[in-house]
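Section 5.1 Outputs to date
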Amino acid sequence: MGIKTVYIVLLVSWLLAQPGNSYGQTAMINFTGRDKIMLNGNWQVMVDPFGSGDAKQVWKERKPVTATDFVEYSFEGGPLLKVPGDFNTQRAELNLYEGIVWYKKQVQVLKKKGKRYFLYFGAVNYLADVFFNGIKLGSHEGGFTPFQFEITDLLADSSNTVIVKADSRRTKNGLPGSGFDWFNYGGITRDVAIIATEQTFIKNYFIQLKKGSSDTISGWVQLDGKVLPLHLTLSIPEIKFKRQVKIDDKGYAMINFKAGLQCWSPQDPKRYIVRLENANGKLVDTIGFRTIEVKGRDVLLNGKKIFLKSVNIHEENPLKKSRCANEEDADLLLTAAKDLGCNMVRLVHYPHNEAMVRTAERMGIMVWSELPVYQHINFSDSTVPGKIITMQQEMVARDKNRCAVIIWSLSNETYPGTPNRNATLINLTKACRNLDDTRLVVHVTNTQGYTNNVFIVWDPIYEHSDLVAVNEYIGWYLPWQGNPEKTKWDTKFPGKPLFISEFGGESLWGNRSAPSKEIPVWTEEYQKKIYEDQVRMFEQAPGLCGVAPWLLFDYKSPVRMNQVFQNGYNRKGLLSENGNKKLAWYIINNYYKRK
């Protein structure tokens, strides 16, 4: 990342952070390493299906003064919901609810002189209005990325009140838009905390291997505060590495040092304790170092060719039937992926929680992280390109030091004929590479042609993608047009690696058919046959660098309305929602063992 680009990024962050800006500030990174008071646990709630709370100004919590002073709202006497957690699965009457829920939490903080305080949210789905002690701090749009507000001047030594309006309704100019194929879990779905910092603190940093180098630590550190120290020390105690860097008058320090490091890999997920210290304090993170690049039609991890044995995962705990919220949930999903034989997971179709990414890193699983730029995005709406850029900035800011993340995926199944789509995605790609040039940048499409057993891959967005990532469901939505192993690929981008990012078909676990020439659909045998045919095709696919079956577990999706076989679930999982292995699971498991 060049100096000019870094200053542009920091300028945007600074503008978003200024007092009076109604949009949530881009959150400080390394939430887990901060001095904080967790606000997780029970919150009082009011359900507001018709949006009456704004007119009633419920955040003011007006109390009756006289016997005839009627106040037609109250958090008292209402239900409690756990945070983090979606509201849909905590109360039966909210199961399919998409709308507004007001949350309230009382918190006492022993305010310390000379400290600054920030109200941090891991994510609220989808629109959030945040109030603190009756004052509106601002709003945030986007259900999958963190944000914060400074509350130093509003924080009282006595009890403080946090009120959040969480609105999960989908809009045509939202991300995703009004169409999507997963369950829309609403509410405060990730951690909430009050973070305490010094007057000047380390807000942001980027510490990874320099692109193309296996021994040069490169990056930068950004401080936030009026009085800036002159120097900052970066140390990695395990290798006795310690360097001092100069801080400029904008609170910014460049990092560029050689160091003898063992690279992180799935076989050996080595990570180091990294310390950042200045006169005001220190911050500690656990960071791994690795390189990822494309050379010709190969993907290279730490300079060596690797086949990406992946699987698609939604952020849903299949056993709890709820949104994943913690490390325990992440461990369940990622352990299942490792059991399948994966060295990578594609986290679809939005940034998953930080616990998922950090757990994957610890377990030695590479991560594909994705924006919710999914299908019918209204690119011609004047507000949409800016929303996408902001969400990308928040995604990259949170996870840019997580070495497990090797791919930023910027779109999935968008259509080249959509007005302003190409220009928006091209600009988005440039912005992503300016933010972080050390990872692969990918767009996924399903617009390829399929004629006479030939895939014709032509979408112009692949010109700006490091991989030709294709979603194809031959054998399910389309029949095979010839022998799978004789399938041909006519790609307009022959010099790039090919990645099959989605494939598969549906089956209801336990629905087994008797031997016959005609295998009934929705059976495990039918799904198994799809996978057997796909694997035969893979063996002949030119430049194939990896595959990702759709998907690991059956997951909730109200648009799946076959009441015999689906009943509100997408049944393409290799595992049922209860963790039962389908016949197709064994096909992929054996394929990954061979690879």
